[in-house]
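Q&A log
Question type: sequence-to-structure
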Amino acid sequence: MLPIDPAMTTADPLDSAFDMVADVNTRLLVLGSLPGRQSLEAQRYYANPRNQFWRLMSPAAGIDLVLLDYPQRLASLLAAGIGLWDVIATARRRGSLDSAIQDVSANNLASAIASLPQLRALAFNGGTAYRIGTRQLGSVSGLALIPLPSSSSAHAVGIDAKAAVWQGLVAYRSPC
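Response status: OK
Response body:
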């Protein structure tokens, strides 16, 4: 459970996750925690240009996602069997940092898993996504659960170190 910030109030905004981007061919579902402020304002996953997500996901998608516009990015992920979603459905947060998340209501990951017949793995973008996601899944069998270093520029690990871990997602591009 995340610590309660006494400065947070019910007047702080209630942020909501976007709809899941996935289809019946999704083999890998990449789960973040909750969209940051810039993403919420733009209504796009990973809209903050400093976030390294699109660069880190490019090898797994088999295409340079950074060069594409947003609809093409999503279409390219789906074509590669990759979906996107967040583990948090709603929460209150000042700013964009995961450390500021309060009043969490989780997305129903079990229902999502049941709706994706080709799913082979869940990849968690950052420690908060991993903790919340695996807590609600319990002992899921038959799926790889992959913790990833956060794509956020606030995560102080260099992009080369992150890319070495994210590179492992390439294995889920092609069908079994």
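Response note: Residues 1-8 have pLDDT under 50 and may be disordered.
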